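Thread amino acids onto this structure.
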């Protein structure tokens, strides 16, 4: 059998698991013979139980999905296949450069085309041996993350959106009604649900970020989702091996299990954060976001005094609020925005793309290339 496209994933952002499985299913439904290769070989690998849960809820999601316990097994399986295109997630390359290079080498030996895709966000970690790139959107091309890609000679560069931003309700490991979600996390469904997205451990230790953490967790009906790297215990030694909520929460706060991320976005009324790029995901759910203390010099997402990654072109559908005013801001529901802002922001960020969804855009790109 010859596959049109192989999706090979080593480093996996857990909330993206069902999106990869859905992407594979979407390819096959659109007459592209595709397979998805996952592995459980490291702390960044896919969780076997979660994969099985995703597949059990929709048997079509399990078609041509393979999971291996070691990287050598997954690479050997890749080498045994015949295929025309291989998709390389950017986050995968960031996590393990050597494995990324081996993957590309196998693909090149088969005279197939490796394409590096944006699966994590605006940040993009380039594989030097690849010459075909699908970045997220042209709006973000001035970021430092894209500099090396855009300056790479003889490269094919396109834009397809970002897999991590896609709102996908297919192939999920579990399904909840709002009442079921609230019961699981001891939230009151009759009151506004406040989602809290703290920074990574390395940034949470900053004074402004830790102060925001303390003030948010004073509020009621809050549920927090750790930064993806914290679920993998990355840099936990900086806070004595503890979780950030154990160090900075003012009172006990609900902590999201990463496989429930879709429902967190869907059922929350407002998203609070300090300097996360999570606004690209909240945008797809029409969920207003509030950036806390955006005027602080240390807040690198907005500071004009720091030559940050986004070069002061960051855009989001929401508001800003000083931490000292946060309690009344939430009580008065000042976070609410005109619903038209979501569509207006999407049009700016996704200008030039036929769809807001990565799986639609990349399907067309692959068909065009074939």
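Threaded sequence (370 positions):
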């Amino acid at each position: 059998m010859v596959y049109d496209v192989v999706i090979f994933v080593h480093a996996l952002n857990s909330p993206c698991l069902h999106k990869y499985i859905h992407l594979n299913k979407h390819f096959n439904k659109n007459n592209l013979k595709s397979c998805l290769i996952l592995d459980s070989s490291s702390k960044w690998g896919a969780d076997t139980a979660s994969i099985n849960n995703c597949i059990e809820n929709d048997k079509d999601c399990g078609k041509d999905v393979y999971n291996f316990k070691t990287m050598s097994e997954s690479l050997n399986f890749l080498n045994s296949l015949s295929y025309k295109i291989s998709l390389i997630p950017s986050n995968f390359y960031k996590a393990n450069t050597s494995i990324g290079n081996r993957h590309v080498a196998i693909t090149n030996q088969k005279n197939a085309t490796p394409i590096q895709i944006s699966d994590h966000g605006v940040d993009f970690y380039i594989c030097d041996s690849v010459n075909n790139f699908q970045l997220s959107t042209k709006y973000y091309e001035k970021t430092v993350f894209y500099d090396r890609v855009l300056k790479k000679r003889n490269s094919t560069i396109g834009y397809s959106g970002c897999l991590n931003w896609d709102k996908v309700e297919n192939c999920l490991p579990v399904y909840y009604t709002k009442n079921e979600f609230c019961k699981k996390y001891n939230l009151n469904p009759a009151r506004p649900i406040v989602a809290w997205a703290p920074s990574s451990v390395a940034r949470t230790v900053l004074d402004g970020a830790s102060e925001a953490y303390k003030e948010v967790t004073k509020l009621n009906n809050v549920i927090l989702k750790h930064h993806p790297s914290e679920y993998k215990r990355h840099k936990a030694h900086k806070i004595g091996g503890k979780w950030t909520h154990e160090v900075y929460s003012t009172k006990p706060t609900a902590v999201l299990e990463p496989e429930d991320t879709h429902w967190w976005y869907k059922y929350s009324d407002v998203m609070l954060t300090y300097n996360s790029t999570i606004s690209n995901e909240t945008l797809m759910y029409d969920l207003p976001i509030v950036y806390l203390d955006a005027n602080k010099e240390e807040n690198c997402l907005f500071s004009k005094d720091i030559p940050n990654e986004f070069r002061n072109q960051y855009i989001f559908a929401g508001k800003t609020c000083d931490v000292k005013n946060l309690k009344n801001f939430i009580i008065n529901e000042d976070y609410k925005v005109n619903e038209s802002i979501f569509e207006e922001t999407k049009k700016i960020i996704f200008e030039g793309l036929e769809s807001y969804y990565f799986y639609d855009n990349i399907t067309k790109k692959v068909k065009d290339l074939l």
